[in-house]
Amino acid sequence: MMRAALARRDALHVLEAEDLAAGLPLAPRCAAILLAADQPEQATRRLRAAGFAGTLVVALARGASVADAVAAMRAGADDVVIKPVGPEEVVDRLLAATPARRPERRRRDRPQLPRNGDFCGFLGRSPAMLAVYEQIERLAASRAPVFVTGESGTGKGLAASALHVASTRQEGPFNALNCAAIPATYMEQAVFGLTGPGALERAHEGTLLLDEVSELDNATQSKLLHFLEKGRFRRAGETDERKSDVRLVCATARDPLEDVRAGRLREDLFYRLDVLTLTLPPLRERGDDVVLLAEAFLARFAGEEGRPISRLAPGAADVLRARSFPGNVRELQNLMRRAVILGDGGLLGPELFEEPEAPLPEETPNAKAAAMLMDAAHGGTFGRVEPFAIVERRVIEAAIAAFDGNIPLAAAALDLSPSTLYRKKLAWQDRRRLS
To answer: 217-238: per-residue pLDDT in tens?
Structure first.
């Protein structure tokens, strides 16, 4: 049936084999292998163990679960099609992935592991970061989705860009979508498009980063799962399906399994996305990288601000190494800019980098935020009754102010989704414009 479906397209020359043992001698002659197996993980592992690292493998599995499909992709399959499925759909998936069917692209030189600390925009040569660079090089060669995890400020967006630059898709577009910043009513069209292309189409033949994918609403998550399984999608409001050849990279600062348990992320979507994982280390585990980064930020901000600051004073590096940096590289970047602006003369002293003392228990940020929220809820007085919408807005604005404008943190303190806060702010802005 597959041979007949391919023949109707006049697409490729097809070689058939009764089983894997008979097919192995034919594999070197193939641009792609369609591997029909009841146990796709074991069959894929045997095929990859025999070589053919550059050959595309699509596993056709009967009665397999999503977990079986993920296991097969981790074993080396580039795609898994679960039966029952029609031969035309299998051929569509096979031809979309086959290198012979894709336009040739000029391949730039592969990024080299750093000698001066620079790799695809990253700066650092600690053992933890060298391991990350090597993993990026390995993961970049695959077509499978990647889940990038790590604390806020560790460079997850930069890692997604590095995966793109190090891949064969580097000539295609790199598109990033911050799911936490999209109001719920616009999520579907932002990803799949409405009257024009969405993020998925704009990243055709390239890479799409979905940052904080758990913030997508359930309907959009369902459509994304359909795209991953079928390779097709519909724009919002359309009936005709479209195709897009995209490699998905998802990033999150939270534990994705916790999001699954909390119902924020569909379990079947998570296991479809979590084929390959890249975890970025926090800055406090990167040793002397903190000094390397500090000096780079120092040179950059001194030039931008027109300040005659040339280097760190003695002892400053030790203070930087001792800081915990809960905000990681982003916190260091802000710290260096502030030090450049406030510093005196050509040196930056260690006093500019000392970690602030922990506040007293009653003065912790959460306690301060709670006090601000209490004041906001009561409008500074007790016993006054106001419409709920006014109290709600005052509480939300107080929460955002308590966390210095950080909407995800404010949302967490209020036990709300960040998209809810963004949606509320947009509604208030619209009312202000209308009035």
So the answer is: 999 999 999 998 888 899 888 8
